[in-house]
Amino acid sequence: MRGLAILLGYTLLGNAIHSLLSVPISGNVIGMVLLVVSLFAGWVKLAWIEETAQFFLKHMMIFFAPIIVGTMMFFGVIGDQWFAAAVTLVAATMIVLLVTAGVMAWQSGKAKERTYE
Predict the structure, then answer these.
(1) Domain limits of the chain?
(2) Which of 60, 50, 64 is nearest to 4 (CA)?
């Protein structure tokens, strides 16, 4: 129960920050970032939230069901805009691949510069 309370607390805190400061980032994302910072800082122990997080991961499909149903309800609209959606998906995928490859190449170069003598 403590894990659920911690996860919900960070979600609510992120949503509150989003509402109060009008930040253009989702409150859920802000809450996740705050949770990660708290985990790295040692303020929250992984053991406290691990069981609840594993439960949510195990049953993740339940959380995607509303999105799937919503997609089916707007299938006609999506069908009218299929080309723009396809181009956007391909372009976004390529950008992610290129940025990831660039970061990996950059990190590999940094690793080769280090000497471990």
Answers:
(1) 1-58, 65-117
(2) 50
